[in-house]
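Shipment paperwork, digital attachment
Item: protein structure file
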Amino acid sequence: MRTLVKYTGYGDQVNTFGIEVKNYKGEMKICEVSLYQDYEKEGDGIYWALMSGAMIKSSYTDKDRAEIDRIYRKETPVRDGDIVLIDGNQYKTQVNGEYSNCAIFHPVIEI
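Attachment content:
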């Protein structure tokens, strides 16, 4: 089971991860995302994935290249329906699509 950790802010290249989404053509692709909490309003506790925006740099560091390699080549992306571990609890992934708010994580309730 994949463990996800909340994004700590600008420059956090450790807690980013890949998520598989369907683009407008219906094709599956991997997008770089980061995990946030409080989706609809502050304090609601809902975990969600924010897709990273496009950015061009004049030069890429070794850390930049390592992050890209990890997300797109080494790690298996999170997919719709995957169960992930966040803060010690299980959540089911609901992928919304290729949007800035591309996924929401719903608590798994055991009966």
